[in-house]
């Protein structure tokens, strides 16, 4: 594997599915898992097998059908969780157990009423037990974002010794700033014995809208796996959005970070997840939102019609969107009107355009968006229908 490759660990079916109202049945999970495999993700976190019989079945069925990606199951640092996950994953070509425990002072005190030493002991025992079933064991230090770096380094070193292959450093509460999260990864890279033999993973939540920025900061500082979800769905404000981190790495080649994602499948994957989860994608969502390639102000429309790159940093075709949209509103200019009129069959001279534009503005002031049918009406009202080129 290239040193600059960042593995994409998709947790749409686990952290993503934790969103209230987004629960999927096994059939839906299988459809999405097959799409993720096609998309080129490296790891699919298929579920939390001990959490319910339905989740066990889903992980088990996904493990049977996924051909390329590693299939992963989540556990707590609890023997039975690990045993059940191993059973659910037994048909996987490449199985991974993802186990872990909270490491921040708040988790140690309030969740476990325990001590740092005991938490390390529990983590080590969990990793060793998971290793007795599968070679590939990922350890998560829950709430690593708020865990003291020196203690976190001790935790990481102990888990490497116990056999962990991947160390997940979650910003569980979405608290870190990008600089702080990047520095945390750098600190671990520089202070943990054996760190170069394992993969460091970023798992960032979006409580302050920083999940994507934090994950990229982690990768810049040496992490080589990013945990993310389609459309950024996930617990509370969500997880890092897969389409965002992938396109950031692609659009900034000087970072020398790359992935194996087939970006042309991003839009259809987003639509598929939205459809099955019944969760609409916000229109202004980066990369996959309905307005991500739509231009509505006159100044922008004029630029895009002359050359797409004036206002677009991504070719929509790169992410599977057929074309940029020129949306007609009362803020649109003549260039946009002429462009859309031509698309529906009207070639206008400059004088005709001036006339039609007046009619268009009157119309647009009373409607949020002017559609193709409205253009025909505007032409009729402008009394220049005879100029139409059909
Ligand atoms: O946010 C988190 O810390 C998690 C872990 C279970 C990996 O989802
Ligand atoms: Zn999470």
From TrEMBL:
- Which EC class is the enzyme in? transferase
Query: Which Gene Ontology biological process is one annotated for this entry?
Result: L-leucine biosynthetic process
User: What protein family is recorded?
Assistant: Belongs to the alpha-IPM synthase/homocitrate synthase family. LeuA type 1 subfamily.
PANTHER family documented for this protein: 2-ISOPROPYLMALATE SYNTHASE 1, CHLOROPLASTIC-RELATED, HOMOCITRATE SYNTHASE-RELATED
A GO molecular function annotation here is: 2-isopropylmalate synthase activity
Native source organism of the sequence:
Aquimarina spongiae
Show the InterPro entries listed in the entry.
2-IPM_HCS-like, AIPM/Hcit_synth_CS, Aldolase_TIM, LeuA/HCS_post-cat, PYR_CT
Q: What Pfam families does UniProt report for this protein, alphabetically? A: HCS_D2 (PF22617), HMGL-like (PF00682)
Question: CDD domains under this entry?
Answer: DRE_TIM_IPMS
- Keywords from the UniProt entry: Amino-acid biosynthesis, Branched-chain amino acid biosynthesis, Leucine biosynthesis, Manganese, Transferase
Q: What pathway is this protein said to act in by its record?
A: Amino-acid biosynthesis; L-leucine biosynthesis; L-leucine from 3-methyl-2-oxobutanoate: step 1/4
- The record's EC number reads 2.3.3.13
Which parts form a coiled-coil structure per UniProt?
Answer: none
- Protein's UniProt name: 2-isopropylmalate synthase
Q: Where is the Pyruvate carboxyltransferase domain?
A: 6-267
